[in-house]
Design goal:
Blueprint: H1 29-32, H2 49-64, H3 69-78, H4 93-107, H5 111-131, H6 136-149, H7 158-174
Length: 175
């Protein structure tokens, strides 16, 4: 039974269907240890500031090696109503708010639509590439690129992931 003017607590915000929740073939740390990522703005849970910082650092370390961290951050940024609490892709709710403001500055107020259009165009190009072979000129360019630049880069090592995490955190603190 529902009354006019009273919120319906059984209805939650739906995620944006253009950005599905990322999945990994192996369980991620946020799935196996959800309490580590439970955090809200100003949440201290009776802990000291140092204990809270240690808890946040533990969650950030867990995210730094996650195979879906990039997609997780995008999903968390796009689905603001679903990510008001918790650590997603090593970011706190206030950090995600700052990142959303930067996205508005960079791409405009309809930044979510811009990202969805870019993602759709990328998927269409990838699908077309599977069905349309390269021309002789394009194949030569690819071969020359491999000769000059070498093979595609290897996956990031844990040390590189840690360095990138430090850079991300420095950028978030500067924002």
């Amino acid at each position: 039974m529902s009354r006019t003017g009273v919120a319906n607590p059984s209805h939650f915000a739906d995620p944006d269907p253009r950005f599905p929740f990322p999945h990994s073939p192996v369980p991620t740390r946020c799935q196996t240890e959800p309490a580590t990522f439970d955090f809200a703005n100003g949440d201290r849970s009776g802990e000291s500031r140092a204990a809270t910082e240690r808890r946040l650092a533990r969650a950030r370390r867990a995210c730094s090696g996650c195979p879906i961290v990039k997609d997780c951050l995008l999903w968390a940024l796009v689905n603001k109503d679903l990510t008001k609490v918790g650590i997603f892709a090593s970011t706190t709710p206030s950090q995600r708010t700052a990142l959303r403001k930067r996205m508005v500055d960079r791409l405009g107020p309809d930044w979510i639509d811009v990202l969805a259009d870019q993602d759709q165009a990328r998927r269409e190009r990838a699908a077309a590439a599977r069905h349309t072979p390269l021309t002789i000129s394009q194949a030569r360019i690819v071969r020359l690129d491999r000769e000059v630049n070498g093979p595609m880069p290897k996956p990031l090592t844990p040390a590189q992931q840690q360095r990138n995490m430090a850079r991300l955190m420095a950028g978030l603190k500067a924002a």
